[in-house]
Write a structure and sequence with these properties.
alpha/beta, Dihydrodipicolinate Reductase, domain 2, 6-stranded mixed beta sheet, 10 helices, 32% helix, 23% strand, globular
């Protein structure tokens, strides 16, 4: 097994290395790949030192699997080149998610649709992954007709510059700006660029990716907000189901779904928070309650580490599934 991580020096790339180590992913030959400014750097992985190389040199090595986390432009240009030499690419950017010829995969939900012919596989957006992990067992049993979701997203979803901005603002400085406004003691209802319809790209990802993964036409509306939290996205989700449901039965469905952890004991003030999610591969669900204002509806509060299940963990799980099912040519 020859595995490459493209964008290995970035925040998600570094998290991927941690997840690969923790999951004891069997690698015979590891290839560390990054942009030109990082070429030649040494990094530690699995107790060994590796020199970072460039994209073209990595293609010559023909890795079996390449996990990309280097941005959409890099993925658009280079993922097909890796695929041409037989590499299976798992891409963490938005470049291929809505491409009709590419599959958008959350292993616990639709990993069974992968085949050897899939040489570029898309990793969904972080907010989409955690929402659908919580909603899939409900949708499978009861059928969801409408979703209203508001996200409260960590600055780590923006990257290192956002973390530097917040840390500087803690100290009263404002020389680094990842956002148009201060993020310290603030909430910015603006994640990614605005589109002509008044929604942001992040909000429309929740709409479009959900319907692609669920192979459905659910009515969805979203609002995405950036908050000054260092790790962990939170989501307030309201859903309407096709039929009446028993709340205890529905919670049992959630408890039995792999990858979910239920934190829902309001008597003891137990509910999901970003604090719990950091460094965890699970998606946390709580505040599960019927919506008395609308028939067959309920509310949930869903939290996950956006760098883990929202990005690195999901990608590594796809790689593990590829190996397990012998989907490498």
């Amino acid at each position: 097994m020859k595995l490459a991580v493209v964008g290995v020096t970035g925040m998600v790339g570094q998290e991927m290395l941690k997840v690969l180590e923790e999951m004891k992913f069997k690698i015979d030959d590891f290839v560390a790949v990054a942009s030109e400014r990082s070429i030649g750097r040494n990094l530690l992985f699995n107790g060994n030192s590796y020199k970072v190389i460039g994209l073209q040199d990595a293609i010559y090595l023909k890795p079996d699997i390449a996990i990309f986390s280097a941005g959409g432009n890099i993925s658009t240009e280079w993922a097909p080149k890796f695929a041409e030499v037989g590499t299976t690419v798992i891409d963490n950017s938005s470049a291929w998610r809505m491409d009709k010829t590419k599959k958008l995969i959350i292993p616990e939900i639709n990993g069974n649709i992968l085949s050897k012919e899939d040489k570029i596989i898309a990793n969904p957006n972080c907010s989409t992954i955690q929402m659908l992990m919580a909603l899939y067992p409900i949708h499978k049993k009861y059928g969801i007709t409408r979703i209203v979701v508001s996200t409260y997203q960590s600055i780590t979803g923006t990257g290192m510059k956002a973390m530097e901005q917040l840390e500087n603002e803690y100290e009263g400085k404002s020389d680094v700006m990842a956002y148009n406004y201060q993020i310290h003691q603030n909430a910015i209802p603006h994640c990614d660029d605005f589109l002509e319809n008044g929604y942001t790209k992040e909000e429309m990802k929740l709409v479009n990716e959900t319907n692609k993964i669920f192979n459905s036409d659910i009515s969805i509306t979203a609002t995405a907000v950036r908050i000054p939290v260092m790790g962990g996205h939170s989501e307030s989700i309201n859903i309407t189901l096709e039929n009446p449901f028993d709340l205890n039965e529905l919670i049992s469905e959630l408890k039995s779904f792999n990858g979910l952890e239920i934190k829902d004991d309001i008597t003891n003030n137990i509910y999901p928070m970003p604090f719990y999610s950091r460094g965890s591969n699970n998606v946390y669900v709580g505040r599960i309650r019927k919506d008395f204002s609308c028939e067959n509806s309920l509310n949930l509060w869903v939290v996950a580490d956006n760098l883990r299940k929202g990005a690195a963990t999901n990608a590594v799980q796809i790689a593990k599934l590829i190996v397990k099912n012998n989907l490498i040519n």
